[in-house]
Amino acid sequence: MLRSLNTAATGMAAQQENMDVIANNIANSQTAGFKKSRAEFEDLLYDTKREPGSVAGANSYSPNGVQVGLGTRTASVQKNFDVGSAITTKNPLDLQIEGPGFFQILTPDGQTAYTRDGSFKKDAQGRVVDKNGNFLVPEVTIPPDASGVEFRSNGEVVVYQGPNADPSTIAQLDIVNFVNPAGLKSLGKNLFGQTPASGQAITNRPGLNGVGYIAQGQIEASNVNIVDEMVDMIKAQRAFETNSKVIQTSDQMLQSINSMR
Q1: Res 111: pLDDT
Q2: What digits encode the pLDDT tens for the residues 170-180?
Q3: What does the alpha-carbon distance between residue 254 and residue 236 come to, in Å, rounded to a whole number?
Q4: How far apart are CA 214 and CA 207, in angstroms?
């Protein structure tokens, strides 16, 4: 009887973690470039009272055995890297990757991080930075006398410095991708970090070798679907309530046993 109490408790803990994942998805439904997550579960060890296929009698074997499960736990939290919808801003420094891939960002500790959030700005020196002032890699510096800047679909960065001057290329943006993007580590601030599970970053020109093109004047919205998250939240709540009901029922059965004379 005590086993059912502990088993149901693992179910409640797993659904609480599931709700934490769903809550984070909903909280970031308006975060540019955010990728939703999904909690995945696995069963725990089994108390094997009789091995499947063990001898049950003369010339007979147990077809199924007797195994009682001990509950569940969260095995992983899977990132979904489906491309979000495009939001048109007409801001020349807003960029979207139309397809797979990541922008490269230089963090304050000198490491390279990766993002799908293309909401870029200019700092006081004209360098292109993200919301937190981290530099875009490779570094792009827009001249102070530039009358316009164009990020072409192939990654070329072109500036216009006068009504009659020819456009000049000042940088070439590359897009990186990974063998297993789901293995990237979420660092917060819309950034991801490389891990052994993700593999090494593979650098490509936009539009080549399976990576996306760059689109200027728009950003990628979160790929969270609020309706789906609400349905998942209801399912998690019902599973949590059912597990709590198992604990109440087990407690009542124990009470009945203890009250016997």
Answers
A1: 92
A2: 999 999 999 99
A3: 27
A4: 8
130 and 68 housed in the same domain: no
Q: In terms of domains, do 154 and 37 share one?
A: no
* pLDDT given for residue 261 in this prediction: 63
Low-confidence ranges of the chain (pLDDT < 70): 1, 261
Alpha-carbon distance of 158 to 149, in angstroms, equals: 6
Which pLDDT does position 99 carry in this prediction? Answer: 92
Alpha-carbon distance values, 127 to 56, 71, 116, 124, 189 (Å):
77, 54, 19, 7, 19
Same domain, 214 and 105: yes
Give 25-57 pLDDT, tens digit per residue: 999 999 999 999 999 999 988 888 878 877 777
CA pair distance 37, 80, nearest whole angstrom? 6
Number of domains in the chain: 2
User: With b meaning 16 or more CB within 10 Å and e meaning fewer, what string describes 55-67?
Assistant: eeeeeeeeeeeee
What is the SS3 assignment for 52? coil
Q: Check whether residue 75 and residue 12 sit in a common domain.
A: yes
Predicted pLDDT at 202: 94
Residue 232 and residue 22: Cα distance in Å, rounded?
Answer: 7
Q: Are 71 and 15 in contact (CB under 8 A)?
A: no
166 strand-pairing partners = none
Tokens 């994942």 correspond to 21
